[in-house]
Description:
The protein is α/β, with parallel strands linked by helices.
Amino acid sequence: MSSKIGIVSIVGARPQFVKLAPVARALEQAGSFAHRVIHTGQHYDDRMSAVFFDELELPRPDIDLEVGSGSHGVQTAAMLAGLEEAFESNRPDVVLVYGDTNSTLAATLAATKIHIPVAHIEAGLRSFNRSMPEEINRLVADHCGDRLYAPTPTAMKNLAAEHLADRAVQSGDVMRDAVLHNRQLAREKSRALETLQLEPGQYGLLTIHRPINTTAESLEKILGALESQAAATLPLIFPVHPRTRPLVSELGYDRSSALRVIEPSAYLDMLQLLEGAAVVVTDSGGVQKEAAFLSTPCITLREETEWTETIDMGVNRLVGQNVAAIKDAFAGILEPEDVFDKAVAKELDRHYGNGASAGLIASDLVSWFATAQTS
């Protein structure tokens, strides 16, 4: 029997592949783990999934459940059934889950019900908006999880408020590990700016995918406001999520000169676009952080954010769907003064770590598992 700790990572969506990369490297370097990867197939389009394994040199999944799209209930149920079977046939010592997707929810429930310990990377995030499916997924993962890796001091405070501090470790943010590791690769390998004929600082970047922003009424309101601002300031490059593309076309924005609609970008291309942008406009949690890590100001199309530190630092502004707020944010964020000074750099390190979070997690998993086995 192997003396190594059997650990399985459950991933299924684009941000999770990014988080997995530094963790997989750290687990391999630690030498104490037999690490497997299960891909639920939540993102099944090659542009949203397979390309990441190539670009980030990730280990290929040992199992791909290929669940595809569907309602929350249908998708989560398919994952539950597939993951329970996988866990029973090759029982791991620890199940490692990432973030707040349906894959995270299903893996947490499947493992907990058959008494396999769960460790949650990116624990303790709270938007305090339970209408967001991600908020429910986070709560379940944290309250069922056995080891909670909180990326920030704020996340630790949230866990303490919910009486989960004894399970929690402030690890720093593995996404910062990933960005710091991969931005040089993007600089060397990506030709996105050349292909799109863009100059750094002469364009903005736009991503929209959340259900609240992708109804016909909401999207029309947001894109109308953004098109007006882009026409007056600088063009917005808009890599459109496959699910949103038909509606963008129906509304006619795929023909806009101010909003340049393009296909979803590969990860390294996206990093290059993000680093070169004068501003990013997004409703993504991950992009808000990546923007901060790459010194790009951010405008967030939400009423709240899990990453409140970026608001406090002045590098991110919440506007929701408010047209006036969008206009004011553009005016303020494109001012010549650079908000990313030495003080902000120190705050980023204090809140998110300095790029060594995955190694800390791997080390803690070894000691935590050893203690759990003897208690």
